[in-house]
Amino acid sequence: MYTVYGGGARNADDKVLQFNGAGKLVVSKFQVENFGKLVRSCGNCSTQYKRTIIINDVDVTAPGKSIVGINSNYGDTAALRKVRIHGDSGKKIKTCTRFEGNSSGKEPKELGTGPDGTACRFSSSDLTYQ
Q1: How far apart are CA 61 and CA 23, in angstroms?
Q2: Helix, strand or coil for residue 94?
């Protein structure tokens, strides 16, 4: 298991954290502002794994593209808990983006966003817009 506890990032054009290995990543007590993706499971690594990502007690400040991106075809899962989104009244930041990952190096295809009860797990009470 990998744990990121505390800290923050600002002005990241693309990914703040990229998860290339196998297993579980827990990000807690973190702040991110003006970012591409907070966490992305590697979409086109030559060796792919099933990954579990938990985002817990995190502050997200717009602008941003996506909080977490996973490869649902490899069994990845993501859970969001106590995530506070600031300055995004239009709800443009994607909460959880599901991709079809590959091991060929090609750009992965986006399959959908938001909670689906399987790969992306969270309820509206897990997110607050401030």
Answers
A1: 28
A2: strand
Residue 51, number of CB atoms within 10 A of its CB: 24
Side chain identity, residue 62: A
Place of tokens 């509206």: 124
- DSSP state string for 48-59: ---EEEEEEEEE
- What mean pLDDT is reported for the chain? 97
The reported pTM is 0.96
SS3 (DSSP) at 74: helix
Q: What burial letters (b/e) apply to 79-100, b meaning 16+ CB within 10 Å?
A: bbbbbebeeeeeeebbbbbbbe
Write down all domains in the chain, each with its CATH number in brackets: 2-119 (2.160.20.10)
Q: What is the pLDDT of residues 55-98, one digit of tens each?
A: 999 999 999 999 999 999 999 999 999 999 999 999 999 999 99
> How, if at all, do strands 8-19 and 120-121 pair?
unpaired
